[in-house]
Amino acid sequence: MKFTLKDYQVDAVADVLGNLDKARRYWGSDRARSSFSLTATTGAGKTVVAAAVLEALFYGDENFDFEADPGATVIWFSYDPNLNEQTRFRLLEAADRLGSSLVVVQNTFRQEKFEPGKIHFLNTQKLSKTGLLVRGHEPNGNGDDRLFEVPPDERPYTIWETIQNSIDDQRLCLYLVLDEAHRGIGSSGRSAEDNRDTIVKRLINGNGSLSPIPVVWGISATVDKFNVAMRGAEKRTQWPNVEVDSARVQASGLLKDTIVLDFPKEVGAFDTVLLRRGTDKIKESTEAWAEYAKEQDEADAVVPLMVLQVPNTPDSREIGRALDTILDAWPDIGTESVAHVFGEHSPQQFGRHLVKYISPERVQESSWVRVLLAKDAISTGWDCPRAEVMVSFRPAQGDTNIAQLLGRMVRTPLARRIPGNERLNAVNCLLPFFNAATTEAIADELMKGEGSKDELPGRRVLIDAVEMTPNPSVPEAVWDKFVSLPSQSLPRRGLKPVKRLTALAQELASDNLLPDAGKLAHAELHKVLDAAAARYAGEIQEAAHRVITVEGETLVANLKDRSKSFAVFVEEANVEVIEDKYRRAARALGADLARTYAEYLAGQSQADSDEDALLDAHVRIAALGLVPEVKEALERDAESLASRWLQQYRAEVHGLLDERQAAYIQIREMAAGPQEIDLARPKNRLEPTRVRQANGEEKDLPTLRDHLVADADGNFPIEANDWERPVLDKEMSRQGFVAWYRNPSRSSESSLAIAYQDGSSSYRALRPDFVFFHERADGSIGASIVDPHSHHLGDALPKLRGLVEYVKEYGSHYQRVEAVAKVDNKLRVLDLIDQSVPQAIARATDAKELYSSAIASDLLK
Description:
Layout (H helix, E strand, L loop, with lengths): L6 H24 L2 E7 L6 H14 L12 E7 L2 H14 L7 E3 L14 E5 L13 E3 L5 E3 L11 H10 L4 E7 L19 H7 L9 E6 L3 H9 L3 E3 L3 E2 L2 H6 L6 E5 L8 H25 L9 E5 L6 H14 L8 E3 L7 E3 L2 E5 L13 E4 L12 E6 L6 H9 L18 E5 L5 H11 L13 E4 L1 E6 L5 H9 L2 E3 L7 H14 L6 H19 L1 H12 E10 L4 E10 L2 H15 L1 H14 L5 H16 L2 H21 L1 H5 L3 H12 L5 E3 L7 E4 L1 E3 L5 E3 L2 E3 L3 E2 L4 E3 L6 H9 L4 E6 L11 E4 L5 E4 L3 E6 L5 E8 L7 H15 L5 E8 L2 E6 L4 H8 L3 H6 L4 E2 L3
Parallel strand pairs: 1-8, 1-9, 1-10, 2-4, 2-7, 3-4, 7-8, 11-18, 11-19, 12-16, 12-17, 13-15, 13-16, 17-18, 35-36
Antiparallel strand pairs: 5-6, 14-15, 20-25, 20-29, 21-24, 22-23, 26-27, 28-30, 31-34, 32-33, 34-35, 36-37, 37-38
């Protein structure tokens, strides 16, 4: 893979491979068919997951301990040839070993069977009755064949025969990947004429002389219809469906965190006003991306795009006037920078502007397009991360269409957050024909990802947002203290320790921080293997005997007295058997490490030839792989060396560009436990200034001063409950108070995170509400965490224990670390730096008892 997978993608790949492994074994042993689905919200990288799965299917993968299927051949099926082409490009972009495996099935395709190790792209049009691939004859569902005007001898095999021959071949296992699997399954609401089996259902269930395809894998953001169809399929085992948690996708940085909605507060025609405002926003975004590219020394800046969404039956004169407004406000571009994606695939005249058509999947790469005219959600499978501003001319009843189109604009352009810069992590939507109530409906819809029934933790939809920037009244010493505070990353399921160390070494060498880091890492691990070989010499000698011999049993049947007996035999293993056992060990220890260790052992060998020396080394490594203690020692030392290097080069990594720092952050997160990471100084932050009350009325949020980021007047809007406001008042009245920080509750490089374990031992992130800064007697700046949290919630005690562990590690960075809860109408405080409090928390079974006990104090005393 060319990309480092996100943690949730790693989990999805592992689960999909587990299903495919079971599926191929069931088909190989019992000719049993099976199916499952992969569900993930738009922007989660489903194609990247598929690329990793298919690469492992064809070539194996040591990280997932997955053996290649030499007979695997794949049909990738969608309803649209353009979607197929988009997918093919993304697979090429993601996986470097799939290039020669991608086959677009053209009308000239004439093979008897599909080739193993290939992905064959097909679509509905190619398999329709008028498609050339089906000419000759086609199963019609009645057991006979429908003849076409093209003689069969001109096409030796129709595509249906090729599919059937591939199913029949015992050496092959045919996998069907259904892209956008909710399409083409059919609907009970159709007429009898239209309710015939669709092409997709024919592939799944068979039809006439066509057998069902053995393994079916459906991929979509919404696979409910597919799952229902699979449950109704005869003689097909359902493996557990793979569902990606949308919250983990949002936390990964692949999706923009903030959606800003603007709408008129008065009744009237404000389309021109908001259109100008939208144009100003795209101009500002263009300047911001150019500045970021210059700051990061990048040759190519992100070129943001503005989408103008119009009704399905637009008035060409109104669109012309809208374009006049945009181009007048943005003189740097002209009509040649405008394109449309309407169903009419031809240039369209709008007023005085002749606007070219562009295919949706080409918009992202076509940086000359700065303004895009669209109607509904354009097309399924389309997305455009550089689209950052949308002005919708749809009426207020079109909230679903607006939400669908915005859902195609939420991917981050660089597949990562821009640290501390919320403007570049946001998308703007302006709604000239909406009011407060209808805008709230859209906001509710947008808080959910496509295919998700629940709100996405970490996603914000803001109305009347104002940009906050670093507060000039905050002393630089406070900022120095802020960025020194240790945050924590959550451990992710990811690379094995040896692979993680190798990946870290590659990054350190690439950035010239530690030249030859790979060689140094492997040299250290060779020492570990040498030490393990000495320590477990007896076990390894016994394992080596198993490597170089093959044991078996001979069954002797006596027909005369009908008796049976078994005789054990031992034969010397040939080279092929030894090499197979070596490859198995290499998957366990790491293929690269196994190769370099074999070379190291062969260099020390006294064997008569290089071939014998290498074979002896492979026997030794195969034996090491059979001793569990060797792998445990190797992984323990690999994890330790990676941690030392990460700490040793932390300052140098912090000085790298954002893209390079992101690579090291991912490697940190692939550890067994929480890792220390740096806080990013916020460059800007978007905050709402108004709140809608339960009665529907809106009111301005109160503001406070001395926040680390503030508006142009030095104010920060604060929506505080009846616990938080007393905390703020108390802390601001303390002697030496200088500044405060409302810690973002979402995943962000500028959000202080503390890892804790929930009831299932999984790690989660606690993001304390407030950090306060006070000047000490010696003039230095001290920081304090104060976190109000309800004691009755199920996570109350686990969060307290997480804070205790954090204080054990990093307490010296703080003056105070306090947890606050309301008990009997009093705000009670636990001081976690007080030695007696952590001991009480360790013994506690109920959080409320802790706050009620003598170890807690009253906040307002």
